[in-house]
Every structure is written in C-alpha cells, then in structure tokens.
Fold this sequence. Notes:
mainly alpha
Amino acid sequence: MLSHSCLIILVPTIQQTNNNPIRCISKRLAVSKTNQMNQGIIIMVKLLTCLFMIAVISSVFLPIISRANDATTSTGNELITRCNDAAYHTQDTDWAAKTNWAMCISFIHGVQEAYAQGIMLDISTHNPKLTPSQVTAKGLKMQGFCLPENSTREQAALVVTKYLKEHPEQLNVADNLLVIRAFFAAWPCPKTSK
C-alpha cells in the first residue's frame, strides 16, 4: 500500500512522463521507498544520538546545576576534600583522587578567571573610552594579587590547598572567596612607588 506522501511525489511524475508511465511509477516508487527507509534510519540515528548526548550532558551537569540552585554555597570544607594534594604527588592510578584533583584545578582556575574578568568588566563599563590593553593593565593593578609569570594551574591549586590547611578556621567560608584569599596571601603584588 502506498503512503500518502509517496502519491504526492508520484503524481507529478505520471503527468510529466509520456513514455510508459507504469514503468516510471514502479521505478520511482522503489526509489521513494528506499529513500524513505534511508531517511527513517538517518532520523533514528540522529534521534538516538541526541538522546545519548542529553543523557551524557545531564549526568555531568545536573549535579553541578543542582548545587548552584541550592540555598547553600560550597565552602572550604568541600574544597579541601576535592583539593587533597596527595593526588598531585602520587603516581598510582587512584582515579577518584585524580578526578578530584582535576576538578580542584579546574574550579580554582575558573574562580581566578571569573575574578579577573569581573574586574575587567567593571573597569570597561565605568571607563568606556579605555582600550582593551588599558583595561587589562588597570585590571591587573586592581586585582590585588600578582600571579608569578610562569605559574601553573597545578601550582595555584597547591597554593589554595596549603592556605586551606593553614586556615581551618575559615573552612566554613564560601570556596570561591577562599581561593581569592589564598592568592592574596601567597602572591601579593609588589609595592610600587608613586
């Protein structure tokens, strides 16, 4: 039995063809059914791919999103657990520790970048005539800490971990604030004379 969509495709073919329309119809019908089957398979594969990506993205980001929507913020207690620097020093394959260490490095780098970008945004909003390089220069001065020129993300994570261990009285403070405090303590900017 022909589907309605096949008939719509075939009707113009019958009207335009002068040579043996029956033969033409059966040929077009076979092509049309094959094309529909191929299109159905392609659509199914695309749908399954989308569903798979939704599942992967949900499993990765839902815990993060749910944490962001919580009334409470993550504190230094959670950060020190993630940033256990033993994972940095070990050569074994403790994947849980290595994953926590990677999350720690990523989080700290994200806080550092967000802090710097927030300052740059504030400067450029209040001083629209400044060039990007002027905004950057002013932002680095306002940042309050100066990362060493060749510092790495791992070094930053070690600095934060050390700060958390040396200041357990602050572990109840928001984790992003503790990262900035650690940077202020470890890397103060040199005093410049005016």
